[in-house]
Amino acid sequence: MLGQSLNAPWASSDGVYTHTWTYQVTHPGRTIVEVALTSLNSVDDDDGTFGRFGISQIVSDKGVENFGDDGPPVLARDKVTSVTVEMFVDNSFARGRVSRNFW
Q1: Fewer beta carbons within 10 Å, N or C terminal of the chain?
Q2: How buried is residue 16: exposed, middle or buried, by Cβ count under 10 Å (0-12/13-18/19+)?
Q3: What structural domains does the chain harbor?
Q4: For residues 77 and 63, what is the distance between their CA atoms, to the nearest angstrom?
Q5: How far apart are alpha carbons 21 and 49 in whole angstroms?
Q6: Cα-flanking dihedrals φ and ψ of residue 70, to 5°?
Q7: For the chain, which residues score pLDDT lower than 70?
Q8: How far, in Å, CA of 40 to CA of 89, rounded?
């Protein structure tokens, strides 16, 4: 591994909320992108807590790949220029991890 970039995004809502983040990548080789939902808590005492986190788009030498709101947690591509991740919460506070590993 030649390097790594990490972020810890979060989202919170007492209703339904979706947030996206786009990260630019300048590494010319292989990039492995991994997302993980690391914390999910209710914002009140309701039973309706729900959260989801995934890769919604990646731009690489394969072109633009869109995965929608139920994207995979891990992707490996060559010559990645950007990756977009999406977190969905319902009545919850969620925190995630985004790692870009450069090979």
Answers
A1: N
A2: exposed
A3: 3-102 (2.60.120)
A4: 10
A5: 22
A6: -130, 50
A7: 46-47
A8: 9
pLDDT given for residue 2 in this prediction: 93
Q: How is residue 33 written in tokens? A: 């992108």
Report residue 37 as tokens: 């939902």
Q: Residue 53 has what pLDDT?
A: 95
CA of residue 20 relative to chain centroid, distance: 8
What is the pTM (predicted TM-score) of this model? 0.91
Distance CA 72, CA 53 (A): 9
Give 49-83 as a DSSP string. Answer: -EEEEEEEEEEETTEEEE-GGG--SEEEEES--EE
In single-letter form, the type of residue at position 89 comes to V
- The pLDDT, as a whole number, for residue 63 is 97
Selection from 27, 41, 39, 19 nearest residue 85 by Cα: 19
The phi and psi torsions of 53 (rounded to 5 degrees) equal: -145, 130
